[in-house]
Design goal:
Chain B: Belongs to the replication factor A protein 3 family. Chain B: It is found in: Nucleus. Chain B: It comes from Timema podura (Walking stick). Chain B: InterPro entries: NA-bd_OB-fold, Rfa2. The structure holds 2 protein chains of 2 kinds. Chain A contains 4 helices and 8 strands, in the order E-H-E-E-E-E-E-E-E-H-H-H. In chain A, the strands form 2 sheets. In chain A, strands 4-5-6-8-7 form a 5-stranded mixed beta barrel. Chain A has a two-stranded antiparallel ribbon with strand order 2-3. The relative contact order of chain A is 0.16. Chain B has 2 helices and 5 strands, in the order E-E-E-E-E-H-H. Chain B has a single domain, classed as OB fold (Dihydrolipoamide Acetyltransferase, E2P), CATH 2.40.50. Chain B starts with 14 loop residues before the first strand and ends in a 7-residue tail after the last helix. Classes of the chains: A alpha+beta, B alpha+beta. The interface between A and B is medium-sized, with 29 and 24 residues.
């Protein structure tokens, strides 16, 4: 599932599904959610449904993960062509795929897909994916800056960093970044420590 | 904030979320005892009496009251299939990781 994208400097049309927390969605600036350097449109959240309100045009769910609550709109139009819509029950965990929208200053998510959690380990792995995403994008941002500073214009340097997000649905360890990110064996904590050491070393030169 | 049994002491008065297995239910229906993922016993006090018997894996959300007491606003019961497949070690480590960072979720 690895896509070989030619990297564009700076922003890039986001086609990746990014795991996020509701807090990140609520705190995102008006222009749209950014993780590190990249725009994020398609997100996945795992949370508990607090309420279900149906009206003629849409069904609104209140989705609550531990970091915040957000409304999710499921626009009802030609729903009949799908297989029977998922029964959404309150006080149950669901995984939501959707797109972040802003309406009258308030944020909400337009739903693309909602699925019940099949396994509680999905919750664990979602938390880990979000954390990984945040930290990795910080790492990428710093790495990109370092690459820009040095006169090294090899696109292969930036390339592995940008292909990261195209794998966002795939476990991260398949990445083979050339720029010293061959740290597939490192745990989260080790990567963070490594990153800190690297940044400190670079800034003290 | 997601916590484990041993973190309750640090979060007294703050909203927390904890997952554990029901050990016993108080006959008056106002409190129950759960065993958190790190095998610590936590007492859960409810604001409304239970209307159904609870057993299995549950998640409790509420305020931490004391080292091992939570006052519960909401709880949700997981279906029994979750209990069998749930990897406690992984969840435990995830929580430890969450607490290791100052701001794990925000950019």
């Amino acid at each position: 599932m690895k896509q070989n994208k030619r990297p564009l400097k700076g922003t890039r049309r986001a086609q990746n599904v990014v795991p996020v927390t509701i807090k990140q969605l609520l705190n995102s600036p008006e222009e749209g959610l950014k993780i590190g350097d990249l725009d994020v449109h398609l997100v996945t959240v795992v949370g508990v449904i607090r309420s279900v309100v149906a009206d003629s045009m849409k069904v609104t769910y209140l989705l609550d993960d531990d970091t915040g609550v957000i409304s999710v709109h499921n626009w009802v139009d030609a729903d009949s062509d799908e297989d029977s819509p998922v029964a959404v029950m309150e006080s149950n965990y669901y995984r939501v795929y959707g797109s972040l929208r802003s309406q009258a200053g308030k944020r909400h998510v337009t739903l693309f897909k909602i699925l019940p959690l099949t396994d509680l380990n999905e919750l664990t792995s979602h938390i880990l994916e979000v954390t990984h995403c945040t930290l990795k994008s910080e790492q990428m941002t710093t790495a990109d800056q370092t690459a820009a500073q040095s006169s090294n214009e090899r696109s292969s340097v930036a390339n592995p960093n940008n292909t990261f997000l195209s794998n966002s649905m795939v476990p991260m360890c398949t990445d083979d970044n050339m720029m010293s990110h061959s740290i597939n064996g490192m745990t989260q904590k080790q990567r963070v420590v490594y990153h800190i050491i690297k940044v400190t070393y670079n800034s003290s030169r | 904030m997601r916590v484990n049994g041993r973190h309750l002491a640090q979060f007294i008065g703050k909203p927390v979320s904890i997952i554990g297995e029901v050990i016993k239910v108080n006959p008056n229906g106002m409190s129950l005892e759960i065993s958190a993922v790190d095998d610590q016993r936590v007492i859960v006090n409810l604001t409304q009496p239970l209307d159904e018997p609870l057993f299995g894996l549950i998640e409790v959300r509420g305020k931490a009251h004391a080292k091992n007491i939570i006052v519960c606003d909401h709880y949700l019961v997981f279906p029994p299939e979750f209990q069998n497949s749930f990897d406690k070690t992984a969840y435990n480590n995830t929580i430890i990781l969450l607490h290791a960072f100052a701001n794990p979720f925000s950019v």
